[in-house]
Amino acid sequence: MSAKVIDGKAFAGKLRAKIASHVARLRDETGVVPGLAVVLVGEDAASQVYVRNKGIQTVAVGMASYEHKLPAEASESQLLALIADLNADRSVHGILVQLPLPAHIDAGAVINAIDPRKDVDGFHVTNVGLLATGQRSMVPCTPLGCLMMLRDHFGSLRGRTAVVVGRSNIVGKPMAQLLLRDDCSVTIVHRHSLGMAEICRRADILVTAVGQPEMFDASYVKPGAVVIDVGINRIERDGRSKLVGDVNFADVANIAGAITPVPGGVGPMTIACLLANTLTAYCRAHDLPEPDGLAV
Ligand SMILES: Nc1nc(=O)c2c([nH]1)NC[C@@H]1CN(c3ccc(C(=O)N[C@@H](CCC(=O)O)C(=O)O)cc3)C=[N+]21
Q1: Residue 136 near residue 116 (C-beta atoms within 8 A)
Q2: Does the annotation place 166 within a ligand binding site?
Q3: pTM of this prediction?
């Protein structure tokens, strides 16, 4: 193995420490701390674990955490009423509705009911449009975390060839927008792309977000490329449950210049960026200067 392993867990720890020091200062200066509301509909086990982790980390940086749990049978109008309350609540600066939502609820309608200024996921159509046109917006947490790690690794991304695999609204599309904004030449490929490996092999920066365990081996990677593995896939191996990425780590680590591991790469950065976005939303709501390095 020759690649540098990009330690997302350590990076996220440093980011949270920076956020915590800003939150402490703001609390002393204003008496008000940033507040993050997380809404969970239904009992999905993975979502429950994830929401609990977010709550713990939110409190750990000194923010207020508000958890709202609705039963799986909750109606769309009940959820919309809760969002209206959270939009109006001045102690809430960020609102996250955990996805996926039960099938009887229109997720798009719910997301677009969130005040865009409190949309710390960056999924509201207003934020999507602001990002696409290069204006100040809330940026989706996973791509934001990837961008922070890439900027840290390269310094400048200008002129680099980036390939994003996956075209979802939560990762692929916003990731491509951010890379474009940092002056990369950006290609998005997806399940219908022809000659995917060949296109990927041109990338200086390869971002994989497809949800296919260990699909990307060394044949997709240019020697020295930086590989950001967004996939988090739970598989059974040797009779045990384990997390793997979209990338075959052992194989790709022999050829890449740098690579993010799973677990311990993009995942921890996603949660740290949720806190960063909440602090950004708070600063904007209170007309305070935004700390450097939190937003793009
Ligand atoms: N509105 C909304 N926003 C989200 O951002 C959102 C969501 N819904 N629904 C679910 C997905 C999933 N997601 C993860 C974030 C961090 C880890 C993470 O920290 N993973 C650890 C491993 C955790 C473990 O051991 O299970 C790691 O990669 O090291 C995982 C998954 C955010 N999501």
Answers
A1: no
A2: yes
A3: 0.97
Task: Verify whether ligand 1 is closer than 6 Å to residue 211 (CB atom).
Answer: no
Closest Cα to atom 20 of ligand 1: 267
Ligand 1 pocket, mutate which of 5, 47, 50 (most atoms under 8 A from CB) = 50
26 lines ligand 1 (CB under 6 A): no
Of 29-33, 47-51, 282-286, which range is least confident? Answer: 47-51
Residues 53 and 169 reside in one and the same domain = no
CA distance 99 to 202: 33
Are both 110 and 158 inside the same structural domain? no
- DSSP per-residue letters across 104-117: TS-HHHHHTTS-GG
Report phi then psi at 243, rounded to 5.
-95, 130
* Distances from the Cα of 263 to the Cα of 5, 234, 243, 248, 258, angstroms: 12, 10, 7, 13, 16
For residues 63 and 50, which has the higher predicted lDDT (pLDDT)? 63
* 170 and 261 together in one domain: yes
Does 167 count as an annotated binding residue? yes
267 within ligand 1 shell (Cβ under 6 A): yes
pLDDT digit string (tens) for 80-130? 999 999 999 999 999 999 999 999 999 999 999 999 999 999 999 999 999
∠ CA 104-105-107, rounded to 5°: 140
Judge if the beta carbon of residue 232 lies within 6 A of ligand 1. Answer: yes
CATH code where residue 252 lies: 3.40.50.720
Q: Does residue 152 share a domain with residue 263? A: yes
Please list, in sequence order, all residues whose beta carbon lies within 8 angstroms of the beta carbon of residue 122, skipping any fewer than 6 positions away.
128, 131, 137, 138, 139, 140, 141, 144, 174, 277
Write out pLDDT tens, residues 162-175.
Answer: 999 999 999 999 99
Structure-block tokens of residue 5: 């392993």
